[in-house]
Amino acid sequence: MDLSAIDPVILIASLMVASTPILLAATGELIVEKSGVLNLGVEGMMITGAICGFAASVQTSSPALGFLAAMIGGAALSMIFGLLTQVLMSNQVATGLALTLFGLGLSALIGQGYAGMKPPPTRPLDLGVLSDLPVIGKIVFSHDAMVYVSLALVALVWAFLRYTRAGLILRAVGESHEAAHALGYKVVRIRLMAIGFGGAMAGLGGAYLSLIRVPQWTEGMTAGAGWIALALVVFASWRPWRLLLGAYLFGGITVLQLNLQAAGVAVPAEFLSATPYLITILVLVLMSADRSRAALHAPADLGKTFHASS
Q1: What is the pLDDT of residues 142-166, one digit of tens each?
Q2: Average pLDDT rounded to a whole number, residues 211-236
Q3: pLDDT of residue 281
Q4: Residue 102 in contact with residue 49, Cβ under 8 Å?
Q5: What is the four-CA torsion angle of 41, 45, 51, 56, rounded to 10 degrees?
């Protein structure tokens, strides 16, 4: 066992990369849940975005078009969920689970011809003198554009929910869709837009996995990242900046366990691999112990079906 081989600077820089796909997906799900909709299909939308982005990137040799295709693929899948739950009024939990299974199967079908291929590389941004700064340059200014996009999205979502009229309307729909409907707001339309945004962000997170984090296509490569994104929204008490903290916590644990395995720590590799998920479950259990605190921040109408006749 050689713990001296673990470089703290590289460890912290790596956690930002490891956290990005989960942060993107969780940011989208935060908006969805703020509208009062519970979409458990994040895993399915992420894996669909991963293969759509990978396929488009390979075919066009453009990572940018790959990310765009991933957003379209994730949003399209989310619209199936939106149609079923908001128009046909199916159960949100059952439909979300079905969406995950559908996404996993669809991605496996589309990805059959892409196994073993490599996408075009996505280069880190050249930030000049900032990248050359000691320690801080390697940690903060040595990443690809999507890392900074994910951070910007958290800030924009926070500002949107806190300071804009549209954000206020979205939160009103999530708190009481009947009251929002009585005030003349189009509840179904607002929720569908939120669902579409959530799907696009999940797809973007999936594409980050297949194009940058693990630049290849592997069936089931999201490996539960969508479920972690769902858990992080609860962990964050539906607050954007806490979401960032939770994503970086999970990313840090993920990177740390990989480094511990490489250092030869005398702990079974399977246990180390499960550590991030175990800690996520532990944190959720501890938070759920104070149910009044959790309920205080959850949208009041989360998971409830809106009936226009009401």
Answers
A1: 889 999 999 999 999 999 999 999 9
A2: 89
A3: 74
A4: no
A5: 160
Name every residue whose Cβ is closer than 8 Å to that of residue 80 and which is 6 or more positions away in sequence.
99, 102
What letter would DSSP give residue 264?
T
Distance separating alpha carbons of residues 99 and 222, to the nearest angstrom: 15
Q: What DSSP state is assigned to residue 216?
A: S
CA distances from 43 to 73, 127, 128, 192, 261 (A): 13, 33, 37, 19, 26
Q: Given CA atoms 252, 97, 99, 158 in this order, what sign does their dihedral have?
A: negative
Which percentage of the chain shows pLDDT scores above 70? 90
Residue with tokens 């938070």: 287
DSSP 205-233: HHHHIIIIIS-S--TTTTTTHHHHHHHHH
What's the whole-model pTM score?
Answer: 0.91
Locate 65 and state its tokens: 């078009």
Task: Provide the mean pLDDT of the chain.
Answer: 87
Q: Angle at the Cα of 230 (from 201 to 17), degrees rounded to 5? A: 55
